[in-house]
Write a structure and sequence with these properties.
- This protein is mostly beta strands.
- It folds into three domains: 119 residues, Immunoglobulin-like, CATH 2.60.40; 84 residues, Immunoglobulin-like (Sandwich), CATH 2.60.40.2700; 121 residues, Immunoglobulin-like (Sandwich), CATH 2.60.40.10.
- 6% of the residues lie in helices and 44% in strands.
- The protein is built from one helix and 30 strands.
- Strands 20, 21, 23, 24, 26 and 28 form a six-stranded mixed beta sheet that branches. The protein has a five-stranded antiparallel beta sheet with strand order 1-10-9-6-7, covered by helices on one side. Strands 22-30-29-25-27 form a five-stranded mixed beta sheet, with no helix packed on it.
- The longest helix is centred in the first third of the chain and has 22 residues.
- The relative contact order is 0.10.
Length: 359
């Protein structure tokens, strides 16, 4: 009987360790089978106060999740010693009296046909009681998120007659997670530095009254461009996130049909636009015109998520430019960022040539 009791105790202890691993620490979880894997964990938003609703994002995942489930937990003031909250299985959770003095975390489970994966958020602010100040209008950030620019804090308006309102600026990763307080940044304005490049910024506002204090953390800004003008991360770049001195690059070009002849009435130019060491650029505007002009004509088109675009041109009366003496169709190609000057900004231009057969 003693052996059975010992074995049972070991199983219970192992079970407790597994539960603690799920709800006790923030970050990206592992996938079961070939299920989704979190690339950015979930984040909690809202006011950490009794009676107030908090909500979670799903985070970012590989594996194209088809569904998500949620489990909220109540932790100590430092975010540890978490215990699952019974019945708290939705994307939103309303803080109750039992949460006062504690922090909250949420574990998101993403599922696809191959399995499932989990990720747990960082802890919320310490939950205050319902007599502490409450934001009537949420604190927010205004200004352009670029190195050297100034961000301005709006502290929001608060009920509960706070006697003091304290501001702190937070530097977070490109997804708004893994935030850390910026030393010395406690005023209503903050000048962005090179250390902020590739990061997002959040605003933490704490209102205090004789009955307690409440902390509200704002939404993150857009990620600041790195010093070279390239956004942080890998993969596709949104053209709006590019800044000088980065430049677009027309890295590949091809034509359909492969050989242009006297009977050709329309052509399709297939252009690939990249930047920042070969990353595809989505949203760039691409325009092409033959040299000399008036041979084929078409419209400016927009690159897709893979950086490619097809520009269709129809034949005009200037083709061929010189029959029997023309061996190439030369096209002037321009790629630009919407809103930039045609000859400035991150735009680029290139001449490309394709064979013709004009007997």
């Amino acid at each position: 009987m003693k052996r059975l009791n010992i074995a049972g105790a070991i199983l219970i202890a192992l079970g407790a360790l597994i539960v603690g691993a799920v709800v006790g620490q923030p970050g990206n979880g592992r996938a079961a089978g070939s299920g989704p894997v979190a690339t950015a964990g979930p984040t909690i938003s809202g006011t950490a106060q009794e009676g107030q609703a908090l909500s979670t994002s799903n985070g970012s995942w590989t594996g194209s999740p088809t569904s998500y489930t949620y489990a909220w937990s109540r932790c100590d003031a430092s975010g540890g010693s978490c215990v699952a909250i019974g019945g708290a299985a939705a994307a939103t959770y309303t803080a109750v009296t039992a949460d006062v003095g504690h922090t909250l975390r949420v574990t998101v489970t993403a599922q696809n046909t191959g399995g499932s994966g989990t990720a747990t958020s960082a802890s919320s602010a310490v939950v205050s009681d319902n007599t502490a100040p409450t934001p009537a209008t949420a604190p927010s950030i205004s200004g352009t998120p670029s190195v050297g620019a100034t961000l301005t804090a709006a502290e929001g308006t608060w009920s509960g007659s706070p006697t003091s309102v304290a501001v702190a600026w937070l530097r977070c990763d490109a997804n708004g997670d893994s935030c850390a307080t910026i030393s010395g940044a406690s005023g209503t304005t903050y000048v962005l530095t090179q250390a902020d490049a590739g990061h997002t910024i959040r605003l933490s506002v704490t209102a205090t009254s004789p009955t307690g204090s409440t902390t509200f953390v704002s939404k993150q800004t857009a990620a600041l461009a790195a010093p070279n003008g390239c956004p942080a991360g890998t993969g596709t770049i949104q053209v709006a996130d590019l800044a000088m001195p980065a430049r677009l690059d027309i890295s590949e070009s091809s034509i359909t049909p492969k050989l242009v002849t006297l009977s050709t009435q329309a052509i399709q130019l297939h252009i690939t636009v990249t930047a920042c060491n070969g990353r595809p650029v989505e949203g760039a505007l691409v325009y092409a015109i033959p040299i000399p002009f008036n041979q084929f004509g078409g419209n400016e088109e927009t690159t897709g998520a893979d950086g490619t675009v097809t520009v269709t041109q129809t034949r005009e009366r200037g083709f061929p430019a010189r029959r029997r003496h023309q061996h190439l169709l030369v096209e002037f190609v321009r790629a630009r960022k919407p809103g930039d000057p045609l000859l400035g900004g991150v735009s680029t231009r290139r001449a490309v040539a394709f064979p013709v057969n004009l007997p």
